[in-house]
Design a protein that fits this description.
The chain is mainly alpha-helical. It has 16 helices and 7 strands. The strands form 3 sheets. The chain has a 3-stranded mixed beta sheet. A two-stranded antiparallel sheet has the order 3-4. A two-stranded antiparallel ribbon has the order 5-6.
Length: 315
């Protein structure tokens, strides 16, 4: 289907562009096999969590309204991450308990080897990013770009840096996983979205030097939903302003971007090559299951306007 046009924007219509689901990466297949599970069972588990927890659905709807997005984008991101990344917990309360255990840990810090993140960012290669100090999204996007061009896979000042993502090398201090909580957000994503979340939801701005607070932001369900919504809002805005594409009607595309990140760089690449954005295996599932996911939202009214600032279980 050819995209429609609205106010100079090409509207990306609902539905999948690929007739069949794009290949699921081997890593996701292996992680699921290790638990003797299946993608179908994992999907059913997270769907059932959403279907039975009307408080959670109400919070999703309230936060989506605050960030001016369709709540199905948030449902899609949660479903995709818990189908292909990690199993969902049976109860929302478990996410609160897990968040408390992380936020209270004195072991949490960001860095690589013996070099803390503050020391690393003080290197001269990052000086160009200082002009974005008042814009967390542009600041951390700049820093991520510097990492990729000047450090990833290189030996700098006698230190050999892995050829891997910035978020994986510097922002996973305790465990092998890189994303956490209900929204499966990464610390780097939370740092990027800090300004928007502070403005809309009122949570304090985050600092890379206070790792426990960053982990609380992505693991406390109430807070993590705000960061998820901000990330989705940003990807929609990036594709609109950079690539001239309105992706707000296609949850499969926003779920894809939530999964792979770097929406501004990807929007720039799309503008350069032309064509239309395509869903990955995450997004394909969401578009394929869209009627079922929308039904989850139809059965729960949105709570009051202050719901997105609640930080207590069950409130």
């Amino acid at each position: 289907m050819a995209p429609a046009s609205a106010g100079g924007l090409a509207v990306v219509p609902p539905g999948n562009r690929n007739a069949t689901q794009p290949a699921v990466p081997r890593g996701s297949i292996l992680r699921t096999a290790e638990t003797k599970g299946s993608f179908e069972a994992k999907y059913a588990k997270v769907r059932d969590l959403l279907a039975t927890d009307r408080v959670l659905i109400g919070k999703i709807k309230a936060i989506a309204k605050a960030y001016d997005i369709d709540p199905v984008h948030m449902v899609g991101a949660i479903v995709g991450e818990h189908t292909y990344n990690v199993d969902a917990f049976d109860r929302l309360q478990t996410y609160y308990v897990q968040a408390i255990s992380y936020a209270s840990s004195s072991r949490l810090r960001f860095g690589y080897g013996d070099e803390p993140i503050a020391q690393f960012l003080a290197r001269p290669q990052f000086e160009k990013c200082a002009k974005f100090a008042d814009d967390s999204y542009r600041l951390w996007t700049c820093r991520e770009t510097v990492w990729e061009t000047s450090f990833s896979g290189k030996t700098v000042d006698g230190v050999a840096f892995p050829k891997d993502r910035f978020s994986k090398v510097f922002f996973q201090p305790l465990f092998a996983g890189q994303t956490f909580g209900l929204g499966q957000g990464s610390p780097l994503m939370a740092l990027m979205m800090s300004d928007m979340v502070a403005q809309i939801s009122g949570y304090p701005k985050l600092s890379e030097n206070r790792a426990p607070e960053v982990y609380d932001a992505i693991m406390n369900p109430d807070k993590s939903l705000a960061y998820m919504a901000a990330c989705i809002r940003r990807s929609i805005d990036d594709y609109k302003t950079i690539a001239g594409k309105d992706i707000s009607k296609n949850p499969g595309i926003t779920t894809t971007l939530y999964n792979i990140g770097r929406s501004s760089q990807r929007a720039e690449a799309l503008r350069a090559r032309g064509g239309q954005p395509e869903e990955n295996y995450f997004g394909w599932l969401v578009n394929d299951k869209l009627p079922e996911l929308r039904k989850l939202l139809e059965e729960a009214p949105a709570p009051g306007p202050t719901a997105q600032k609640s930080a207590q279980p069950g409130r």
